[in-house]
Design brief:
By secondary structure, the protein is an all-alpha fold. The protein has two domains: about 40 residues; about 80 residues. Helix content is about 55%, strand content about 5%. It has six helices and two strands. The protein has a two-stranded antiparallel ribbon. The longest helix is centred in the N-terminal third of the chain and has 24 residues. The radius of gyration is 25 Å and the shape is elongated. The mean pLDDT is about 80.
Amino acid sequence: MGTLKAEEKRQEEEALERTRKFFETKSYTGIPVPSKKQENKDNFGQNTEDKLVEWEKNQVKELFVKYDTEKKGVSKEVLVEIMGKLMKDECIIGKVPNLLEEEVSTMYDTWEITDENKCTWHRFRDSLSTLLWKQ
């Protein structure tokens, strides 16, 4: 009986040693840490690029979801309304689409959107990446 307990203890110690070695080899660089919190706050809204970053797209998603109550997509008319709100920076991302107001009303004409085939968030999000944005 004593050798059985000793064997279990040895196996347990070996498992702990394997776990320790496993975590020694892992690199956790790039993971947000509390010390980055202030840096992230300081950099908030400082993105000057002419494309949207994921955080900015998530801000736009909140607006899109307000219109997509059935989660089946939205019509062209609603897309134009959403773009109008983005032109006024109602999502408060510090950028607006680099478009003329006349372009907004016609930009979705080529999209095949019908009552059955509405524009989903994923398609709209992908289209945001194709636009140029300005501050």
